[in-house]
Amino acid sequence: MSAPATILLLLTRVDCHDGVSSYLETLVTGLSAAGDRVIMVSGNVSTTYGSEMRRRTIEAAVVDWIVLDGFSASRPKLAHLQRIVSLIALNAVDVVSPQGFSAVPIAFLVGRLSGRPVVTNYLPSAQSDQVDSMTGSMSARQQLGYRLVAAICRSDRYIAMSSDIARFFHDQCRIPERRIHTQLLGIDTDFYRAPTSEERLQARVRFGLSDDTFVSVLPGRMNLNKGHDIAAAAFRLLRSRRADTPMVCLFPGGGDQRERIEAEVLRDDVDRTNFRFLGYVDRETLRQTYWAADVVLLPSRMEGFGLVVAEAMCCGAIVIRTPSGGCQDQVVEGKTGYVVPFNDPTALATAIEKVLDSPDRAVMREEAIHLGSTKFAKSLMIQGTSSLYREIATGGRQRRRRPPVAAT
Question: In terms of pTM, does the model score above 0.85?
Answer without folding.
Answer: yes
